[in-house]
Amino acid sequence: MKKTWVLFLALFTMMALAACGSDNSSSDNEESASGSSDENWKPDQSIEVVAPSGAGGGWDTTARMAAEGFEEEGIIDQGLGVVNKEGGGGAIGWSYIAEKSGNPHHMFVGSPPLLLVPLNGQSEYGYEDFTPLANMISDYGAFAVHKDAPWDNLNELFDDMKDSPDDITVIGESSPGSMDHIQFVKIAKAAGVDPKSVKYVSAQDGSTMTNLLNGNADVYSSGVTETIEQVRADKIRVLGVTSEERMEGDVVEDFPTAKEQGIDETFINWRGFFGPPDMSEAEIAYYEEKFAELNESEHWQETREKFAWNEMYMESEEYKEFLSEEKESMQELLDELNIQGE
């Protein structure tokens, strides 16, 4: 009986030790798998890219060309679908992505309105609420007038604005205090125009060019790309663009900069990609690598040339620093215009 009892205890002890070893091994394996998975994260389902606007325009075009490049160049194995979330100057799209916290299979295209719209109180979400992944390009503003307008350059326009600001209407697609308004004000201020005197009208229904051509507006503040076709058709003239130097490419090479007209100011329409809140370091690193690869690809080089975009790649941390500095600059302009967020 005693011998049986001793054998039973020995067997029980061996089983317990084996179970502990199995548990530890299982735990170690799980941790190892988890660590390996995290370090080498990659998407396991299709990726949704949100353009916080309707079809056409900068956000939509950037999203679609990037998705096309990732697939054509074989940079990302999973499919990428572009979805338009229009409204609120971008705020509807931002709100949608904010609800995808921790899900790295969603992203959106952002540009200066991501700073300006929250600052002027039209959105509860700003760039700090998302995960900057990479900036990809820089675009610039253009100030266009009807081909028969009385001004041949920006200085003539701004001189008239100083004398009779109420007689000159500037139109743009963005809301007051957002990009089309602010890029014009920034250049006009550098030329000596009182920012608060600028008569800006927002036409978010896509009627800006129509209003310029039929005489309901005098100046169209927009992106360079949006002016090219009407310049080719000899219906409008571009008095100036906001780039540091003359741009390269058919048509745009003829657009004078504000700087070469003696106005020492620029405005950069940067454009990049943001993920939802709470992405891991491994997920961020994955997208940084893929966007860097896209930036160097033949597809993206051709895309930049096609749309007269400049290269402006920034990885996540550099992008955050840039956005912080840009936000301060935008806040100063909005303060001067007395446009305050709630």
TrEMBL record:
<dbReference type="InterPro" id="IPR005064">
    <property type="entry name" value="BUG"/>
</dbReference>
<dbReference type="Pfam" id="PF03401">
    <property type="entry name" value="TctC"/>
</dbReference>
<keyword id="KW-0732">Signal</keyword>
<feature type="compositionally biased region" description="Low complexity">
    <location>
        <begin position="23"/>
        <end position="38"/>
    </location>
</feature>
<comment type="similarity">
    <text>Belongs to the UPF0065 (bug) family.</text>
</comment>
<protein>
    <submittedName>
        <fullName>Tripartite tricarboxylate transporter substrate binding protein</fullName>
    </submittedName>
</protein>
<dbReference type="InterPro" id="IPR042100">
    <property type="entry name" value="Bug_dom1"/>
</dbReference>
<feature type="region of interest" description="Disordered">
    <location>
        <begin position="23"/>
        <end position="44"/>
    </location>
</feature>
<feature type="signal peptide">
    <location>
        <begin position="1"/>
        <end position="18"/>
    </location>
</feature>
